Each structure stands twice: as structure tokens, then as C-alpha cells.
Predict the structure of Kelch-like protein 10.
Amino acid sequence: MLLFSRPRAYHGVAFLNGYVYSVGGFDRVEHFNSVRRFDLTTRTWNEVAPMHSRRCYVSVTVLNGFIYALGGYDGHVQLSSAERYQPEINQWSLIAPMHEQRSDATAFLNGYVYSVGGFDRVEHFNSVRRFDLTTRTWNEVAPMHSRRCYVSVTVLNGFIYALGGYDGHVRLSSAERYQPEINQWSLIAPMHEQRNLHLWWIQWQRVSADMDDDQPHEQPPQRDRCHCICGSCLCSKTTKKC
């Protein structure tokens, strides 16, 4: 069994095909490009192929059987590069870089990978970009109402929710959601506290009991369970204790 021989933080987390992946990160000395995965059946860690770049503050999401790693910080500069992992061949491949160097949050919806907010160590962004898997290009969509880095992002019932974060001056309690059909962000009820880098959990219900949503939330046949840390979400329809 492979254990983490060194501590790590600000890594990305993803769930794919029965494995929990820990992507990049740093330990106050070194910034990692290494990737390890936890087997929920054997409860063991194993190392897989490393990324092309060292990345902490990296945004990670899963779409169509690939793990996407976007931006981050390599110990010297913020990154605009992005790559994706194909587990069948244990290989990372570079994809089109983002328009800015940034550390941000990611979400996938309707076949697009969204890069939401973030910062480049100078500016804090309210901009949102999305990656088209067909054309393999990045395009800008409507910006959020607030600048948000360290923002937590998830998808529910066809909306992208962005909660809290830091705008460069204060931590935020505000929250908003994006509707792709009309390319618009709308403010929702704020959280009770100002939060960034927070942990939150969703089980196919309202994101918060305080949210104003007049649309009924349909229950899927089997509920997803999602754990989101620093904007990275781990979701499984067959989540097990580990």
C-alpha cells in the first residue's frame, strides 16, 4: 500500500471509475505534478502518471471519462495551461490553454468545462470561460456579479452555483447561479457567514434551505453524493465509507 510520504495541500480532488484522485498540490517545500488515486475496494493508494506541469491551487473536474486539470501555480508563476487524464492509457494530454493565467474553480455542464472566477496573484476575476469539447476552444460567457477566488462551485438542476469566495478585499457571503440557456448569472440568498475555501455537501436537494428557487427539484433514480473542497467536487452514486 502506498501512503502519502509527505503532506500535501491545495491539491485537486476527483472521483472517476471507482477511484478517488489526488492531483498536484504542495507541501510548503515542493509543488507537485504527481497524481495518486485511492481504490475504494482495496482501500489502497497507488501512483499514476504525473501531469505535464506542477500545479497547486489547481482546478479539477471530470467529464466524459477524463479528468481535467486547469491552471494553478507551479511555484514560480500562475498557469494558463490545462491538461486532461485518460485512465485507460494512464496518460495526461495537454489541451488548449486558457486565456489568462489563473487559479479558479471548475464545473462541467451540458458538455462544457467551465472555469469560474479565480486570481492570477494580481487580479481577482469575475470572468467565466468555458471549454468546448467539440471545437477544443475556450470562449467567454457572462461574468459573475462579484469577483471570486477560492470560490466553491457546483452544478445542480442545470444551473452552476458559485458560493462565497474572496474578492481581493473581503471574504464573501454572497452567492449566485448561472443559467446557460440565457447566459446570465443571478444573485441568490446569501449565506449566513462570509466564507472561502469552505467544505460543503450536496445530496440532490436545495443547495441551501435559504435559497429562493421556485422550480421543483426532481430526484434522480439514485442519488449522487458530493463533497466539495476548495471548489473541487468528489461525487459518486455509490459513495462508500473509506
In short: The first strand starts at residue 12 and ends at 16. The mean pLDDT is 81. The radius of gyration is 17 Å. The domain at 12-236 is CATH 2.120.10.80 (Neuraminidase).
